[in-house]
Specification:
The protein is mostly helical. It folds into 2 domains: 212 residues, Rossmann fold (3-Layer(aba) Sandwich); 81 residues, Tyrosyl-Transfer RNA Synthetase (Orthogonal Bundle), CATH 1.10.240. The protein is 53% helix and 7% strand. It has 13 helices and 5 strands. It has a 3-stranded parallel beta sheet. A two-stranded parallel ribbon has the order 4-5. Helix 1 links the parallel strand 1 and strand 2. Bound molecules: tryptophan. The site of tryptophan (TRP) has 13 residues, from strand 1, helix 7 and strand 4.
Length: 326
């Protein structure tokens, strides 16, 4: 079976954007691929974070993956720092990665802007570690959101550079994009994110979700209930496209353009579908949360399986580099 690898940062608030762009797609893919999913804690330390929360956030990220439908039966799930070879391979990849390439990564530029007082080497090397994550398992496919495509391109380049300089042992990984559209935050302007506080958390209570939806920005030109709206510029419609079936989409498209359906009605319809999808996830998360020992077991099993693959690759890499191996 073809192998896929993907990672998620333990940021503390996994939201609808992460779910639609990544996690839900991962669940779809489990049947067709040999799947490895990783909570990338070493990526998360490239910016300031509350130290006392990292452990909890890491376990919670794993819990969310399980609540969404991943399981030790359909995937290997583990924590990046538990398999030491990730950082080891990243160092080696650092030596074949042109600085000019990492400097032009948009995520690096954005983060450098956001964290002016802490533009560290790790922030720059972030996509190199990501390439190591993927190539350590020789994964050919990487399901990610659109914002990560540039990093996957760089992973291909790193594989090419390594293969060309030493020996062709790495595949050039391809991204797999989610079919769902990219959704914005409830401000209707920027990408959904925890830092911008414009997100809907995947485990939020129904009441909280409704409150955020109720006040979410729609088509700004639709001021009065009787004004016709334009679904094409409405973020609520985009979210509908990720959660509603075609019949409902057609109904809303028509209703919005003719002012037959108001924004609040449209949001209520969306809320119904969101509830249907998210309530079982929240309930499962609550149940799983009562037995953190189980989560720890899943992660230990994942790390053992992935650690074995990682070791084989690193042995091969060290030999390929011509290092002295006693
Ligand atoms: N950079 C990714 C993100 O922010 C997370 C990530 C780390 C990742 N390593 C990865 C994704 C390897 C895919 C493959 O979403």
């Amino acid at each position: 079976m073809k192998r896929i690898f993907s990672g998620i940062q333990p940021t503390g608030d996994i939201h609808l954007g992460n779910y639609v762009g990544a996690i839900r797609n991962w669940v779809y893919l489990t049947g067709e691929y040999d799947c490895i999913f990783c909570v990338v804690d070493y990526h998360a330390i490239t910016v300031e974070y509350p130290i006392e929360e990292m452990r909890r956030r890491t376990l919670d990220a794993a819990l969310i993956l399980l609540a969404c439908g991943l399981s030790p039966e359909n995937a290997n799930i583990f924590v990046q720092s538990h398999v030491r070879e990730h950082t080891e391979l990243a160092w080696i990849f650092d030596t074949v990665t042109p600085i000019g390439e990492v400097e032009r990564m948009t995520q690096f530029k954005d983060k450098a802007k956001q964290h002016r007082s802490n533009i560290n080497m790790g922030l720059m090397s972030y996509p190199v570690l990501q390439a190591a994550d993927i190539l350590l398992y020789k994964a050919g496919f990487v399901p990610v959101g659109e914002d990560q495509v540039q990093h996957i391109e760089l992973s291909r380049e790193i594989a090419r550079k390594f293969n060309g300089r030493f020996k062709p042992i790495f595949p050039e990984p391809q991204e797999i994009l989610s079919m769902a559209p990219k959704i914005l935050g409830v401000d209707g302007q920027s990408k959904m994110s925890k830092t911008l506080n414009n997100y809907i958390g995947i485990l939020e209570e129904e009441g909280e979700i409704w409150e955020k939806l109720r006040t979410a920005v729609t088509d700004v030109n639709r001021v009065r209930r009787n004004d016709p709206g334009d679904p094409a510029v409405c973020n609520i419609y985009t979210i509908h496209r990720a959660f509603s079936d075609n019949n409902m989409l057609l109904e809303i498209d028509k209703g919005c353009k003719t002012a037959g359906i108001g924004c609040i009605d449209c949001k209520k319809m969306l809320f119904g579908n969101l509830k249907n999808e998210l309530t079982p996830i929240r309930e499962k998360a609550l149940a799983l949360g009562k037995d953190m020992g189980y989560i720890e077991d899943v992660l230990a099993k994942g790390a053992a399986a992935c650690g074995a693959i990682a070791k084989t690759t690193m042995d091969e890499v060290r030999e390929t580099l011509g290092l002295y191996i006693p």
